[in-house]
Amino acid sequence: MRIWVAVIGAGLAIWANGAVAEPGIKRSAGAAAGLTLERVFASPDLNGDQPQALRLSPDGTLLTSVRPRADERNRFDLWATDTRTGASRMLVDSRKIGSGAELSEAEKMQRERDRSKTGKVGILDYDWSPDGRTILVPIDGELFVATLDGAVRKLEGTKGALNPVISPRGGQVSFVRDQNLWVRGADGGEARAITTGGGGTVHFGEAEFVAQEEMGRRTGYWWSPDDRLIAVERFDEAPVQVFTRASIGAAGTSIYQQRYPAAGAANVLVDLFISKPDGSGQVKVDLGPNRDIYLARVDWLPDGSALLVQRQSRDQRMLDMLRVDPATGKTTVMFTERAGEKSWVNLTDAYRALRDGSFIWRSERDGFGHLYRWKAGTWTQLTKGDWSVEQLVAIDEQTGRLFFTGNRDGVLERHLYALDLDRPEAITRLTEPGWWLTGATADATGTRFILSRSNPDQPKQTYLADASGKRLSWINENSLTGVHPYAPYVTAHRPTQFGTIKAKDGTTLHWQMITPVMEKGRRYPVFFQHYGGPHSQDVARDWPGTMPLRQYLVQQGWIFFQVDNRGSANRGKAFEDAIWHAMGSVEVDDQLAGAAYLKTLPFVDASRIATYGWSYGGYMTLKMLEAHPGVFAAGISGAPVTDWALYDTHYTERYMGDPTRDAAAYAASSALPDAAKVSDPLLLMHGMADDNVFLDNSTAFAARMQGANRPFEMMLYPGKAHGAARDIHPWTTMLEFLDRHVKAKGAK
Question: Which positions are catalytic?
Fold first, then answer.
């Protein structure tokens, strides 16, 4: 459920005892320019040009990306950069080929699931042909083919295409439409449906709701490496409960009968088939007798000889790696990952099959996320220690060199590392200290890397590096000088400070803080932001997309503060498992410990600490106000889950169990029973078209408050979904609320 409300709740920072400021930005002389809220949300983006979807061409001579327009920060075009000369050019102008047509409901929902695409238009993705001569470009629900000279032609008969790709050998283009999988020749010919049973509650080639929202799986079909076969998922939503959801917009209300798998209720029925690209020769994969499972991951072996399927149990305490014979659909279990007591198995994308039949696999079996090598039933641990591997980036099988990202140098930093498979104990860090690596991709053999990094004084930079980590060239230096959008505000930029406090049980918690230029003897109000949910880390040596907004708050006289509580990510399994069947418990305690620490600081006004969160953070706001009235001067809760029985199966049951068997845990975690205990000023916010955290969550809480005659304020956003707070109005509303209830108390 990690909700990346990019302009709000992602990646915040925190500080504590013995705080040390980050190395300062190089500041020019002269008066500091002040930020305005209007400028924070205007174009161009103050974080600088941030290319996305970066990929190397098959021959490595071009690096392509989608980039925002200077005059329209949410519209993206396709660009190409020559890796030999550094020359960049727009390859496809989205305005010239885009029709602005209404997207299908399926694509709208997919974009909502993929937080990085919410609210954006133009070219958001693309696919290189294997020969490097053409690029498949989807835009506004239609497909185009671009050549390297900038020419673009439309692929007829592809309107409404979803999840389009070019097959691995380049001969075919495939996509989903009308709930079936379609294939057409890359050079011509009509598209043909290779499945025909899609319609109603049955879907082929798509990922079901929980796969998209919670499992990190965006597709439902997979080509074999030789173009010979396709594995296709079929799911049937018939068993899933129907919720009547009102999407309330400014011009009217639409009613949707949405099949939503609420915790404890039925999931979709999933099947997997393998067929030839024309749909013939279909065989059904044996996923076992238990239909109530999750299809977590599907991959082909590099030579196409077998299909690998990850089958996860409904309670997510067991994950089987299945090897599938594509000729018969028969399966064998290669290995099984099992959870420890009071825990669950996290899904991972850090795995790779090697040519010698061995397998690289990330596991948390020793308490931290580490890499193992499996071969013929024998496990060899490659990395170990009280730190975690994040991503498996590349393997050069010829030299035996493996590249991964992780936090071996401290939880606040993320780096690229390398090891030799024959001598895994010798790990080499390839990136500079003091940075947070936000992205790492490589060519097939790990000889060229695209690395993105940031720190609290430098927005995201992207560069091309070799296998030693040496920077070969900048892709986007994004220097805060010259015409950079943030350059006028650099002089006023305040450093981020870091520190630690202790939780009730003695666990170390990391925090982050940004303070205004402080006057001696004056005490300042605090904007205490939090997320607090699992699979998140907010305190890091990075420059999040919200940095300009934080700096604006600081310039308005706020101290900005954040702390990562138990239950969040990258601190080991025991740290994360603290919320097992107990959401809204230790997270609340740890955030309150942060508030208690703030009140010991001589420059903090203890009576003017405001707390804010969105999604899981909104839930946390309510639980915090309920648990300890008077700690905070006011609270803001955005799109909160107020009753976990209302949220989806895969996310909620992972942490809370089955509500039909663990009713007491669900009752204790709910924010509804204690709603009447909220006595501090509260602002409740929600998008009125939210299909993730339904509006019912906020209306149920509002009804409890009203029934208890408790005053509160509420702001609803017509037509807005879960990312409603990405606009200026929510922040205008929040700050006006805080001016009245917090700042108005006056400095002491």
Answer: 615, 690, 722
Give, to the nearest 10 degrees, the angle between helix 616-627 and helix 586-598.
70
d(CA 571, CA 412): 10
Given strand 436-442, what is the order of strands in its sheet?
436-442, 448-455, 458-466, 471-476
Tokens of 570: 């990258």
Query: What confidence score (pLDDT) does residue 498 get?
Result: 98
Comparing CA positions, the residue from 416, 410, 420 lying closest to residue 380 is 420
Q: Which amino acid is at 643?
A: D
Q: How many CB atoms within 10 Å of residue 445? A: 14
Residue 115: the pLDDT is 62
Q: b or e along 10-22 (b: 16 or more beta carbons within 10 Å of the residue's beta carbon)?
A: bbbbbbbeebebb
Distances (CA, A) of 176 to 143, 151, 164, 182, 202: 12, 25, 7, 6, 13
Helix (H) or strand (E) holding 182: strand 180-185
> pTM surpassing 0.85?
yes
The span from the CA of 297 to the CA of 682, in Å, is 42
With CA atoms as reference, report the closest residue to 393 among 468, 444, 452, 465: 444
| DSSP code string of 267-298 | --EEEEEEE-TTS-S-EE----S--SEEEEEE
**C-beta separation of 639 from 722 below 8 A:** yes
Beta-bridge mates of residue 562: 512
What's residue 221's pLDDT? 98
Distance between CA atoms of residues 289 and 466, nearest Å: 48
Q: Where are the beta strands (DSSP E) in 492-584?
A: 496-502, 508-514, 524-529, 559-563
Q: For residue 256, list its beta bridge partners.
A: 245
Q: What is the DSSP string of 123-162?
A: ----EE-TTSSEEEEEETTEEEEEETTS-EEE-TT-TT-E
How are the residues of the chain apportioned to helix, strand and coil, as percentages rounded to the nearest 5?
15, 35, 45
Residue among 71, 87, 81, 168 at smallest CA distance from 122: 71
Distance from C-alpha of 209 to C-alpha of 245, rounded to nearest angstrom: 15
- For the chain, residues with pLDDT lower than 70 are 1-32, 112-113, 115-118, 746-748
Q: Which of 172, 119, 122 lies closest to 6 in space, CA to CA?
A: 119
CA 231-404-397 angle, 5° bins: 65
Distances from the Cα of 510 to the Cαs of 16, 500, 506, 571, 731, in angstroms? 7, 5, 13, 11, 26
Q: How far apart are CA 449 and CA 441, in angstroms?
A: 6
Where are any strands of DSSP class E within 317-398?
Answer: 318-324, 331-338, 351-353, 359-363, 370-375, 378-381, 389-396
Please tell me the distance from the alpha carbon of residue 270 to that of residue 292, in angstroms, as a whole number: 9
Nearest residue to 647 (alpha-carbon basis) of 293, 262, 254, 290: 262
- Dig out the tokens for 532 from the structure: 């607090």
Q: What is the largest distance, in Å, between two alpha-carbon atoms of the chain?
A: 79
Provide the β-strand partners of residue 134. 147
Please enumerate in sequence order all residues whose Cβ is within 8 A of that of 259, keeping only pairs 6 or more positions apart, or say none: 201, 209, 237, 240, 241, 242, 243
Cis peptide before 44 (omega within 30 of 0): yes
CATH of range 493-745; options 3.30.2010.10, 3.40.50.1820, 3.40.50.12240, 3.30.530.20:
3.40.50.1820
In this structure, are residues 431 and 451 in contact, taking their beta carbons and an 8 Å threshold?
yes
Beta bridge partners of 79: 65, 90
Long-range contacts of 305-312 (CB under 8 A, 24+ apart): 307/222, 307/224, 307/231, 307/274, 308/334, 308/353, 309/272, 309/285, 310/347, 311/287, 312/345, 312/347
User: CB 710: neighbour CB atoms within 10 A?
Assistant: 15
Cα–Cα distances (Å) from 465 to 435, 447, 457, in that order, read 16, 8, 22
What per-residue confidence (pLDDT) applies to 32?
58
458-466 and 471-476: which strand pairing?
A: antiparallel
